[in-house]
Automatic annotation (TrEMBL):
SUPFAM superfamilies: lambda repressor-like DNA-binding domains, Periplasmic binding protein-like I. PANTHER family: HTH-TYPE TRANSCRIPTIONAL REGULATOR GALS, LACI-RELATED TRANSCRIPTIONAL REPRESSOR. One of its GO terms (molecular function) is transcription cis-regulatory region binding. This is LacI family transcriptional regulator. Residues 6-63 form the HTH lacI-type domain. It holds the Pfam family LacI. InterPro entries: HTH_LacI, LacI/GalR-like_sensor, Lambda_DNA-bd_dom_sf, Peripla_BP_I. It comes from Pseudochryseolinea flava.
Length: 342
């Protein structure tokens, strides 16, 4: 027999066992089917010796699964999304699945094309950070019975499972932290977006400011692919607005804010205090270090992939009525030098 050319039938004939037994062993079901360790080792040793590789197509036809999960994020280069992707990939691998991921860049056409690709690849499930203009496309997948879980944001009118943080509470706590440290003219710099996580963060800021009877200062910017666009707008806003602190709604806006402050030669926290959502190595090593509200990436990722895979692996009969899991995680502010009055 030639290396790499064996079929399951060949392996079964060589060892004088049934091809069903070989299939169970190759698919990791030896213990479940009470196949002896001795026979399992014989099959595995022969497979290793001849270099047998099972056909992905054949496995898919037999099991009804491809072992592939589609992961769609806003921007895979963003430290938050890349961190989530890495954790999901590692967790999925432990359970025998592979990840294909892509970036939507908040573009509807791009989102549609990637969803079409995932569908053609017959992925077993979808993990999606969806643009707010993709609700119809996601709803179509849901109506087709696809296994989907959302993260970082959700759609109110589609009963899909999702994992996200308590954005409103987190922003209230970040704003209160600045107020408690003596800052009074606090700006919230965010995106002009209807995405639920951005709306909730804006509400949190407004509640904390109203509670403290302070004036609201908010800059809402359109989504852009170019950091220079944000830096220019932030620079103009800081130059023309009397402030003593800024709270950035995302990590990448916080990074752009640092560049704008540097260009204006504004000292942190002497001239302006700073807090940002998300946490990056830059915030930790910057002088002064930047106070941040990190999202619990490891917990979020593990919850996402295990919730999805548990749904996929349940018998069909138990999935006839889909159960919506609404998972909201907490955050904790990391206080550093940028928000402490000297």
């Amino acid at each position: 027999m030639k290396k790499g050319k064996l079929s399951i039938n060949d392996i079964a004939a060589k060892l004088n066992i049934s091809k069903t037994t070989v299939s169970f062993i190759l698919n990791g079901k030896a213990k479940e089917k009470r196949i002896s360790e001795e026979l399992t080792k014989k099959v595995q040793n022969l497979v290793d010796k001849v270099g047998y590789t099972p056909s992905q197509a054949a496995q898919s036809l037999r099991t009804g699964r491809t072992g592939i999960i589609g992961l769609m994020v806003e921007d895979i280069s963003d430290p938050f999304f890349s961190g989530v992707a890495k954790h999901i990939e590692d967790e999925a691998f432990l359970r025998g699945y592979k990840i294909i991921y892509c970036s939507t860049e908040n573009d509807k056409k791009r989102t549609q094309e990637y969803l079409r690709m995932f569908n053609q690849l017959r992925v077993d499930g979808y993990i999606i950070t969806a643009p707010d203009n993709a609700e119809d496309d996601v709803e179509k997948l849901y109506n087709e019975g696809k296994q989907i879980i959302l993260f970082d944001r959700n759609f109110k009118d589609i009963p899909l499972s999702y994992v996200m943080i308590n954005n409103e509470k987190s922003t209230i706590e970040g704003t209160r932290h600045l107020i408690e440290n003596g800052f009074k003219k606090i700006a919230f710099i965010t995106l002009d977006s209807d995405q639920p996580q951005m709306v909730s963060r804006g509400k949190g800021y407004e509640k904390a400011i109203k509670e403290a009877k302070l004036s609201k200062h908010m800059l809402k910017m359109n989504y852009s692919l170019h950091a220079e666009d944000y830096i220019e707008q932030i620079t103009t806003y800081l130059r023309t607005t009397s402030l003593d602190a800024v709270f950035f709604a995302t990590g990448y806006l916080g990074i752009c804010g640092l560049e704008a402050l540097k260009g204006l030669k504004m000292s942190i926290p002497k001239d302006v205090g700073m807090v940002s959502f998300d946490d990056t190595d830059l915030f930790r090593i910057h002088t002064p270090s930047i106070t941040a509200i990190p999202q619990p990436i490891a917990e979020m990722s593990t919850t996402l992939i295990n919730t999805l895979l548990d749904n996929i692996e349940k018998p069909t009969s138990s999935r006839q009525k889909k159960v919506q899991h609404e998972i909201v995680l907490g955050t904790a502010i990391i206080v550093r030098e940028s928000s402490k009055r000297k």
